[in-house]
Amino acid sequence: MNFEVGSIVEGKVTGIKPFGAFVALNDNVQGLVHISEVSHGFVKDINDALSVGDVVSVKILSVDEDSKKISLSIRQTQEAPAPAPKKERRPGGFNNNNKKSSSNNNQDANKGFNTLEAKLKDWLKESTDRQAQLNKRLKK
Fold this sequence. Notes:
17% of the residues lie in helices and 25% in strands.
């Protein structure tokens, strides 16, 4: 097959399925671009991004000589978009669109952050105490 992993080549889209696109690298060899490797953004419908007959640049991700399968990526031939600017966060974990009241009557507001493990211990103790109270009532 003589295709090297990591090399970038041009190919022609020969078929599209919901999971990806088949790209012919030459007359005898074709590979698959998985839908997750089409674009840096989320691709809901591959038909919105590619059409049969499109000529695309692809990077060879893997070559399996035994099964004659080649994994390709269009995404890795493109420059990654700049990350979106982070929104300013106010103390309390909410941004300006979801204001958190400082007079929130949430029971956990005074406790601060507790891990799940600590919460689980509290819940088990509370459950055991309730069960003991119920057993006392039943014995009376």
